[in-house]
């Protein structure tokens, strides 16, 4: 659309709908494994396996939705029909996920989690990929794309944090007025699902309606009928023709799995490793509201000053160290006891640094995927934003899918007790969980840094692509 700066309102409306994806992502990354294991009673390895198997469906649905969104023609453009269609299925299936029928067997609960999980993840794909794909069309500027993605990540994180903190406010209140810690009550999660589903519906509709006016300015694909074989051929060519895209895609998957292990174990660490009360967890959540603001300002600044590649390499290292060092210090008994007043501030600081580094690096990484759109267009003659941006969606799902599977295995290998009670889990079990998490995380983060170091894309190469496509003066 333009290489000039976009109005703040456009960025706001583009990003707002990401609250729905942020809520889903937050739920799958932080809550789903914990709730199905500790509250609904599903075995950790079965819960992790169900979440992993959802990735099999994502591997097909994500690129296909992206491809058909790229090729779709209608009075409402390429993207908006998919966005409008997704709103009701997303909100309904999300609610059902947190309210399974009572007295299911382990096998029945496994298949319930798998079935509803596949449905919600496919439904959110129909929104997230087409809506994200609007970004490269709204702006072609190297730095402005980082700013645009920052708004999207900002709303995504704020959406997740908003319901996270609302949940813990409810848990704190219910725990103080009742006799049971409300985080362990099924009714808490039913209310959580209901509230989240309503917010997700509103967020999707705001972005769909708010960006509707831009339809006339967006790219319209050429009308042509092609065979299934040609369709699959174009799909394969699109995702494999750019070396840098393949490197970025692999790096996103590896880092997402590494982050997914940490996020899926977060509530286990908070509840049992650190023995935090609901008010402690709420305190951490409230401080994390500032992290998306850091990404909003810092990501485009670092991209402009140091380049996207250098920024990401250093922030990957920061994220890895901050995420794991505090856990290693506890395992090595280098920290005071959990009843010390120093524990909460220490965990908060390390967690805050890790999350901030990840937000900035993921924002910048997604912006680099944006920049491959013109490279692929130059090589193939097709603008395929949706297909290419399926990488971001699939990588994010790896966070909850593969991350949850590995987290479930870590709990099983460590002989995690059924119905665990905070303060009563043996220290050798807790240390085993911590060491497994650190070891696997280290392998993944080091691998991601090595893979990403192979990226050759620069600001200069991006501007050359724009020039060759006659976009430089748009």
Description:
With 474 residues, this protein is mostly helical. The chain has a single domain (14-218, 229-468), classed as MFS general substrate transporter like domains (Growth Hormone, Chain: A). It has helices at residues 8-16, 18-39, 44-71, 80-97, 106-132, 135-138, 142-177, 186-210, 228-240, 243-273, 278-287, 291-306, 308-331, 343-380, 385-413, 427-452, 459-468. The chain is globular, with a radius of gyration of 22 Å. It starts with 7 loop residues before the first helix and ends in a 6-residue tail after the last helix.
Helical percentage: over 70%
Q: What name is given to the CATH topology?
A: Growth Hormone, Chain: A
Q: Quaternary status of these chains?
A: single chain
Average residue-wise pLDDT: 85
Order of helices and strands: HHHHHHHHHHHHHHHHH
Number of helices: 17
Beta-strand level of the residues, as a percent range?
Answer: under 5%
**Outline type:** globular
Task: Please outline the major beta sheet.
Answer: none
> Could you give the count of β-strands?
0
Distance between the termini: 7 Å
Cα-atom radius of gyration: 22 Å
CATH class: Mainly Alpha
Uncertain stretches: none
Quickly give the structural class.
Answer: mainly alpha
CATH homologous superfamily classification: MFS general substrate transporter like domains
| Count of folded domains | 1
Name given to the CATH architecture: Up-down Bundle
